[in-house]
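Newbie here. two chains, one complex. Structure please?
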Amino acid sequence: MTFEIAHAGHWLTSIAYFVPVVAFLIWLGITQIRERRREDR
Amino acid sequence: MFLIGHGLSVRSDLPIPEWLFGWAAAMVLVVSFVALAALWPEPRLQAPSWRPLPGEIGRVLASRPVEILCGAIGVFLLALTIYAGLEGTQSTTANFAPIFIYVIFWLGLVPVSVLFGDVFRAFNPWRVIGRAVAWMARAVSREELPAPLEYPAWLGRWPAAAGIFCFATIELVASNGDKPETLAIAALVYSALSFVAMALYGVERWIERGEAFSVYFNLFSRISPIQTRDGEVGLRRPLSGLPQLEPLPGTVALVAVMIGAVSFDGFTSKRPWNSISPDIAQFFQDRGLSPEYALELTFLLGLIGGVLLVAGFYRLGVLGAKSVGGGFSARRLAHEFVHALVPIALAYVAAHYFTLLLFQGQGIVYLASDPLGEGSDIFGTADTEIDYTLIGADATWYWQVGFVVAGHVAALILAHDRALALYNDPKLAVRSQYWMLAVMVGFTSLALWLLSSASV
């Protein structure tokens, strides 16, 4: 198996595609926690 | 493995990096979601809408002579494909069978179904032969044939899911899957299995639920504004055929296979796969498999992984939707929203195979004149060549992004409309859709990454 540590720019470009998904999931998680806390109160 | 390239050349003149298109697409989805929440307060697609075409056009198009003509063409093409595969040259590009099956039939019928409705039903050679045999059997015996067995409810669309998976395996996994003879034998085996199943469960029931290609193209045809009903062609709202999809067992699996197979096909051109797959193949070789079988098994595992990934991601969205409340089980929600995945499957197919259809599809012009690849020139088109200048790399990318965004916006609309019908509380309906939006953004990002020139 070859993991390429060099050429990090290639990896970063690929990761960049999934930034919106991660950002959205984080926002969704925070929203969900807030909703639950509000319901608990 | 079918090795006629999907994409061509390098995108050189894009105004922004490719990954920024992914971000823009995600933004379009979020904005569409907000717009739907604000401007689409009532379900509009749940009730069937249909009106006949003006005049007699609708009846003529669905008339018996047209049906017989289309059926005869379908049977002829099946016979020609099998004959060319068995008797013609064994070159992938010089034989009618591979180009016809993989490009004209498998890819070409998708846009045709989306634009003109369930066209394949009319041309379906297995349905035609099954009906003709039943008709002849009735005529010979002069009495009603025994009633077919009842189609088991649990079987649902599982046979179709299995059939499409097998097709994807031949296309993407089998090392000789592009060989004309392999395809001809596969067509013969599939025909035999279909006839047995039709004899057991009845022609129409099997076509409707079990025959893989009927079910596959029917799913896409539900996007179309054209529908044939009671022997007449008519119009309906675009997308409105999908909410009427009966949520049978196996439907989620079928759509997961549809999206997962395309995803895996795209993934095989990426560096992670090309880095890992030789090691996996070597692992199997060390355990006694031949290099060819080891590679095939590796690709099979990859294909299964792609399907499971898609199914798992959808499952995640469903569990998220369940967590907001409403009292629905995950199983119920998975069935209620599965129809929204069909435009995503369409987006994946259209974006990924756009250039393959556009370029290799031209091959049918010379193959029509020389289907066996043995030097004949029936229509005088045997010397025609493929024009690779039809569309450039940048324009292809714009089209691909357009397909992906349009497909996912359509999916959002369908999911939103269903949520409004399902949940009594509109706020709960919108909240449940946050998770579906996450699924859509995920599929959008994945699609654009797979299509991008990023090799890693």
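Moderator note: Residues 18-451 of chain B form one domain. Strands of chain B lie at 51-52, 226-229, 232-235. Thread marked as resolved.
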